[in-house]
């Protein structure tokens, strides 16, 4: 399948669409240190960083390797970002972050389920991987509920003083 900026994925409570400049301020406001506690990112509140992120997302979309999307509620309000990354014949990686007041409502599972269905219907690969920090209990529940199994653990640098302890979950296809 050829990825494009017009792809929309609907869930019961959300619409996913390719990230674009329209969402710079939303991402800037909600991509906070609290939200990224368990992620290898250290937001600086810098608008230029968000613009670079969106431009890189557009570039990888055009190369058909990544689909970075915003998640919007039924009223079109921003609730977070998600992505399908590193698409190859071997594997695909999923990622997700939700703004603070959208967490704990089952939206993460709903969004990841929709991304998996999109992948299963449009791509062929051997497995999906979903990396999560082992201390992020709420996020670990998503792959565990959806039939992923822990594959390996590794450390990933968050900043000069902090490492994340990542559990890489995988869901295999025959």
Automatic annotation (TrEMBL):
| Pfam families assigned to the protein according to its UniProt record, in alphabetical order | Acetyltransf_3
Q: What is this protein called?
A: N-acetyltransferase domain-containing protein
What organism does this protein naturally occur in?
A: Chryseobacterium piperi
UniProt xrefs under Gene3D superfamilies: 3.40.630.30
Q: Which residues form the signal peptide?
A: none
What is a GO molecular function of this protein?
acyltransferase activity, transferring groups other than amino-acyl groups
- What PROSITE patterns does the record point to? GNAT
Lineage: superkingdom: Bacteria
Query: Which residues are in the N-acetyltransferase domain?
Result: 14-174
């Amino acid at each position: 399948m050829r990825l494009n900026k017009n792809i929309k994925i609907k869930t019961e409570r959300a619409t996913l669409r390719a990230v674009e400049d329209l969402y710079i301020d939303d991402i800037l406001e909600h991509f906070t240190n609290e939200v990224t506690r368990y992620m290898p990112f250290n937001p600086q509140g810098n608008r230029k960083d968000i613009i670079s992120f969106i431009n890189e997302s557009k570039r990888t979309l055009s190369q058909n390797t990544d689909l970075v999307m915003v998640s919007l509620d039924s009223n079109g309000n921003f609730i977070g970002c998600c992505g399908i990354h590193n698409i190859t014949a071997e594997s695909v990686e999923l990622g997700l972050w939700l703004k603070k007041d959208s967490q704990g409502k089952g939206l993460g599972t709903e969004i990841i389920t929709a991304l998996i269905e999109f992948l299963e219907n449009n791509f062929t690969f051997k497995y999906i991987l979903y990396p999560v920090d082992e201390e992020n209990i709420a996020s670990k529940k998503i792959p565990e509920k959806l039939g992923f199994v822990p594959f390996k653990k590794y450390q990933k640098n968050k900043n000069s003083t902090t490492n994340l302890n990542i559990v890489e979950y995988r869901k295999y296809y025959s």
